[in-house]
Amino acid sequence: MIEELLPDSVVAVEAYGDDGTDHAPLYPEERVVVARAVDKRRREFAGVRACARRAMEKLGVEPQPVLPGERGAPRWPDGLAG
Hints:
82 residues, mainly alpha, two-stranded antiparallel ribbon, 2 helices, globular
């Protein structure tokens, strides 16, 4: 529904809750980031990355790792924001 209000260059992808399942495999660089995290945090991290990859695919961008920036927020590929 929100996509109906936005220009074609903007997509929305969402996920609800934590059902305890892994959402998507992480890239090796992403796995390193959460290697010592508890399971809940790893699932949350993977869920956000799964949404990011689905958004990239909708925009025609090759899915790629989304690593944290210096303050922990996702560092998006050039030309993208989330």
